[in-house]
Amino acid sequence: MVHALIDGVLTGSVYALMATGLTLIFGVMEIINVAQGIFVILGAYLSYYLQQHFGIDLFAGLLITIPTMFVVGIVVQRLFLARLKGPEKTAMSILVTYAISLVIEGILNIAFTVNNVQLNASYTNKSFQVFGVYIPYIYFLGFLLAIVLLSGLYYMLYRTRFGASIRASLADQAAAALVGIDVKKVSTICFGIGIAVTAAGGMVFGATNAFNASTSYDLISRLLTIIVLGGMGSLAGALVAGIAMVTLEDLVGAIWSPVWSTMAFFVVLVIVLSFRPQGLFGQQSARAA
Amino acid sequence: MSSTPSSVFARPATWIWALCGLLALTFPLYETDPAYQQIGVYTLIFVACATSWNMFSGYSGYVNLGAAVSYGTGAYTLSIIAVHTHPNNQMGGAAEFWLIPLAGLAAMVVAVPIGLIALRVRRHTFVVITIAIFFTFQLIAINASFTGGTGGLSLPYIPWGASYFDIPFYYLALGMSIFAIILSALVRRSRFGLQLLAIRDDEDRAMGLGVEVGKVKLTGYVMSAFTIGMAGGLFALLQGQIYPQFVFDPLFDISIALMCFFGGFGTLVGPVLGAAVLESSQQYLTVQYSNGSLYLILFGGLFLFVILFMPQGIVVFIRQKAKQRTDRQIAAAAAAGSNA
Questions:
Q1: Are A106 and B131 in contact (CB < 8 Å)?
Q2: Do B136 and A217 touch (CB under 8 A)?
Q3: What are the boundaries of each domain within chain B?
Q4: Sign of CA dihedral B238, B239, B242, B248
Q5: What is the mean pLDDT of residues B264-275?
Q6: pTM value?
Q7: What b-and-e string marks burial along A149-164, b requiring 16 or more CB atoms within 10 Å of the CB?
């Protein structure tokens, strides 16, 4: 019980980080990035590659993988997503990002085969004891990493000028453009940031789970559930829903059966949406889109 | 809007439909290789599904990325009944085919509560919820006992010779496709279809003009589940064995959407064309080269290309080109006239 609770909060923070990237992208650009799952896996494989071939530590490797994923995000945004316009933009964005994720999945399958791998380091197998509960170091380190990155992200969003322009674009794109914010530039950088966090998320995910390219389907369905539940475009929603959902999943797994724990995820989604279609923290859209 | 018989026969579209129908009807006669006949069956299954999907998603603009829920429900309904009743014993191999409409009905019944929940939200969130619901169904199929879990279900054996095994399936799939196309055409011309299109254009305005959007969306969603469910049932019979990840397949969801966008989202012909081209070429590639990863890259790349360069699909793209050409000809004729 206690174990599941601690586990849930620790892992949940990592999901919250990945979901924050996703909700940021949706909020600013009205793009639903279905490729977020495969980007997480790509981030995990990058860490794996750096460790296997260059012997770079997983956490040190983040100094390389985070900027790399940021650039990948910007390239994808410039090449494909910036072209989308018109009323069907959001629907099209789902299809485009799905297509991107299929291409990356195919490439990863060829490059790394479909065999499951897991990231290993001295701290992935060792645990320490708190209140009689064994916690693997990697869970704790992952939690710290997520907290550091989320704090950095929140600091940037709420304490800097650029963050203010992002929040303005989140609230109202047209109005933001009117007061002189370069919405296009903000969008591109936001997409980069949204993808960059997957490098960290992917590393922790890869160190705590065995994965291959098709694991991305499981990941993306969870991440999407989290941001819908929190309210699409809501940063606080992604944070709260991320931690709450994963904790709930772990609790169901501990009390009832791990087989149905993923199910709890979706059941909660359905119940919440029946009462609050806009999600926990979402605002009712004034106009249909 | 009614047109006289002479004007119908004067339109080239009528002749193209007739030619395609004739080719489709006689396909098993000139293509006797079972491997290729099977490609024909799969292609027609997808023609039926894509047309039916488009009848709701294409007309209303609510992109459903959980069509496999209907497909899988149909497949499992038929399989579970067939396994428990063994209709072969009483009526021979053909008895199971009577279960196909039942598979469609089951898909409709399942679609009602899903629609009630998922259609409460606007488009963007709807897409995401359909994905989530899809994964829930996949999970149930994998974990529940009545579905046989990951081992799947084996259907009673159909005692037909290999040389003509696919032919009944082919004509059933063809019938389903024709049914889906006619239904889609009827919906498009009806008041109900106009209401769906109005929702796609501007839901708030449609509501303001008195369209009962909730009811219309739910009806459309449930209607489109019927043919997809029947196709799932047919697929189960054809395979003789179903597994959760084959009938609740995320690639199915996205393939259907791609076929419709490729051909022309919200048009009548688009999904037919898209499914015919994409599914047949995919099956052909699978028969020729069995590299799944390479296929993913090609499929994704093609998808990107179509959406970025022909965002309205081939049908609309060709229509626009043709219209531009006639406009130019008219302009040229007018210019020549004014010069003379």
A1: no
A2: no
A3: 21-309
A4: negative
A5: 88
A6: 0.80
A7: bbeebeeebeeeeeee
